[in-house]
Amino acid sequence: MERNLNLFYLIFLTILKLNLFAQVSKVEVNSTIYGDFELQRNGKPYYIKGAGAKDHFNLLSKSGANSIRLWSTNNQHLLDSAHQYGFTVTLGLYVRPERSGMDYNDEYAVKGQIEQLKKEVLKYKDHPALLIWGIGNEVDLKYSNFKVWETIEAIANFIKKIDQNHPTMTVIAGIDPSKIYLIKKYCPSIDILGINVYGSIEGAGTNIRKFNWDKPYIVTEWGVNGPFEAKKTAWKAKIEPPNGLKAEQRLRRYKQLIEKDSERCLGSYCFLWGQKQESTATWHGMFLRDGRPTEAVDVMQYCWTGKWPNTRAPSIKNISLENVNWRKDHVLASNSQVSLKIQYLRNNNKEIISEFKLFPESYSNQIGGDFQASPEAMAFEVIRKEKDELIFITPKRRGAYRIFAFVKNEMGQSSVANIPFFVD
Amino acid sequence: MKLTFPIALYFLSCCLTLSCSINQVSIYEPYEPETNFEKFPYKVLFTSSEEDAFWGTKNNECKTVLFDTSNNFIGNNHLHIKWDQSNCNYIGLGLKWGNYKPKNLLPIIKSSALELRIRVDSGVYSNIPMFFILVDYNDKQCRTKINYLDLEGGKIDKTWRRIRIPFQAFNYLSKGVNIRNIKELRLEFQRKGDIHIDNIIIVEHEHNYAKLVDDFTKVFDKHPINLGVGKEYWWGINPKYSSSFNFGASFENESVVVKLGKSNGSTWNNFGFSAYKWMHTDISLIFSTSALNFKIKASEIPKLRVSFISYHGQRRRLQKELNESNFITRNLNNHEAYIPLKSLVGHDEFSWDDLKELRFTILNDVPFEIGDFKIIEFRGNPKKPTEWKGI
């Protein structure tokens, strides 16, 4: 009887394993009859409509996305969750960048990292959601030791040997001829180039060709121009455009730059389907800190499905302080009464709710999306509040501040804009 | 009976030898440590109930430090730390290690490692966001983290796992830490975690990994330097997408035939090449007596902008629009360009020890061929590039 039970258990496990393997997708890069590169998943064309996302999967699915990008293997539950929602995953293998203190001349550190990542590959290679291996993210940012490419190749080469089902990609920060040359020379096992491009997305398609990258590419991070590309005030505060303008920029970039390059581009991952502090709390995120979606979410649905959602977020197109618009410097007297005005599109919303918050200016030297702490909102005196105007009293203390205006509809769909100002 | 005498003799001689050797050794003589490791006195940092072995154990909103008494690896208790960095810039604690006595790690640096035991309450990890930091008496610090190669079983789980941190893994040389005068060991924690630590000691350890040297830098200390040699180091020339530029054959090394107006596909107006195989190119020793020199074959001298780009530095790009003073016409269709590097605005802020590439932007639609790019010696007036007798 015991033997029969053991036999049954063995058969059950075998079936389970076979079932698991049956779910593993075969992903390949092929060429079409027109000579275009094409990603194929289980023999069918697969164009990546993706987002850098860790949550809001339900809305992501409804918006028409089919894939998410994860930057590391730290959170298996995200991979499992993505699979439940029917998303594929470009799974990042976190290769320590030189800027984090990694020394690529240190054989011990290098070999240790490679062996650890090989273990991660073995752990996840048969996950049914896995689409592409993303080996390293922006390891080229502020680097000087090109040996890092040997690490990338060691991992890619290992993947080629043990996982024939998933292509390999490395992701770089912007395109540059030296990086393209070094990757071509030192990383022959890389199938796809991932490019994180913000302002530089404008010339990315041309530069890929100019710099002679002869394999396909994926736009692994894209969105609005980053804080590192922004104009600064005299007191070094970065000037962020209103969300409405950023949404227009997203739409144009997807339609005119990403979608049009059907020859080389296998798809994209917009940044960021979520929220994070990067100079401000609203720069890259398509959601607010409290989880409310902004008009960027509506834009992505239009990009992915060709249809706008039934209800759309209002959209702030302009913001001004003392009738001077957001592009200029604003230096104000302390403890003085000032006026903040916003202009927004209602987008057929009957009810619009406005909210205003004041923060101390946040300065950070972090780069490449590294963690930045969020400042806390400050109390301040409001004289009068309208839907499109706030009369308030500036802080008494000299210093740099930033005031945010939020608008939302009854569904919570929101828009935001801010202006940095200096109290002298 | 015949064997009795020799056996007795042998036995006697053995006894005599033994008694002699016993006489030479006194059991009351002190033990002399032989190796540097044996001589090192501070081998124990934390083993059992030395709660006072640490500083920074006070709990706050970001960390909880406990000395658990159950499931120890050794002794009566062990360190249990839970942390969350969300609201704190720094989370750490330190080991007083020999009650802060100065420790000279130099004699043992190649033969020893820090060893500790670690476990978690749930899950399996191959790394923990924690750093090990050596601090000297000048408050200089060097750090390292857990390496997979010295993590027992390649994982951290519910079992006490051995971790070794070879002293050679610390970046003490690059951080200027005086390894002969170490004050303490600190543990720094990042992000979020919950771990148990026990038995922190120093052990003998063989570490067979090298520190490699940078072989991606090319230093030039004499003229001339031939540039743009090897088509693989060029960009901007891709006839599949644009026929604005094609490699030519009129010059000794690589040259480019430029035809912007009659271009098939996209019209591209710039190309470039690496200074030397896309390596860090150091011409800092000779840049002040150097000029860029190249040849042009054309019925009319084209309008060009030349850019020098470095890999790093405050000012990463120098550029110049060339004018008549940069050219000498050798005969009807052959022209030669001279651009003294000191004539470039901002040349003193540029990292000449880390030159990356040269770029050329074509500013008008004149067909020509350009090639024979060189850095040559130039000791004339940078403002009069073609008037030096040496060219």
Could you explain the architecture of this structure?
- The complex is a heterodimer of chains A (424) and B (391).
- Chain A is α/β, with parallel strands linked by helices and 424 residues long.
- Chain A has 9 helices and 20 strands.
- An 8-stranded parallel barrel of chain A has the order 4-5-6-7-8-9-10-11, surrounded by 4 helices.
- The longest helix of chain A is centred in the N-terminal third of the chain and has 22 residues.
- Chain A is globular, with a radius of gyration of 24 Å.
- Chain B has 391 residues and is mainly beta.
- The interface between A and B is large, with 30 and 42 residues.
**CATH homologous superfamily heading of the largest domain in chain A:** Glycosidases
CATH class of the largest domain in chain B: Mainly Beta
The CATH fourth-level homologous superfamily of the largest domain in chain B: Galactose-binding lectin
Instruction: Specify which chain pair forms the largest interface.
Output: A-B, 30 and 42 residues
- If you consult CATH, what is the topology of the largest domain in chain B? Jelly Rolls
Mean pLDDT of chain A: 93
The share of residues in extended strands of chain B comes to: 35-45%
Number of domains of chain A: 2
Number of strands of chain B: 25
Number of helices of chain B: 2
Average residue-wise pLDDT of chain B: 90
Rg value of chain A: 24 Å
For the record, the CATH architecture of the largest domain in chain B stands as Sandwich
Residue windows where pLDDT falls under 50 for at least 5 positions of chain B: none
What is the CATH architecture term of the largest domain in chain A? Alpha-Beta Barrel
Helix content of chain A: 25-40%
Counted up, domains of chain B total 2
Oligomer state of the chains in this structure: heterodimer
